[in-house]
Design goal:
By secondary structure, the protein is an alpha+beta fold. Helices cover 30% and strands 37% of the residues.
Length: 145
Amino acid sequence: MNFTIRIVANDVEREDAFSVRRKVFVEEQRVPHHLELDEYDDLAIHFVVYSDQTPIGAGRLRETSNGIGKVERVCILKEFRGNRLGNLVMDALEKHAKMSNYEKIVLNAQVSAIPFYEKLGYTITSPEFMDADIPHRAMEKKLTD
């Protein structure tokens, strides 16, 4: 299979990212639709993973304060998991964050995804909390020395 990742550049690609997010978060994980699509979608830079021309993964990055980027909504369709596509998404997000001169990236990881983020160099920075009825912990990764 041929996988590519793109920064969303038009309405079609934006809808591709949203469609993947709806399938993973709303349909699979039962996150309420009004929580999944939020006010930050207009501010964030969106990324979408394609298998040929089919959207299969997504993620977004936004600046939360000067020099800090926040990774959100990282997801891969269930049938494509296990192909290291999460790494592809995170690599693209981190490269963009570095080009934007962010000092660090923060994220709120679902507890089940913590080992994935730890392998990428993220560290836990909070106790467990609930978000959309799913346990999470805040994590961060410094991008500068």
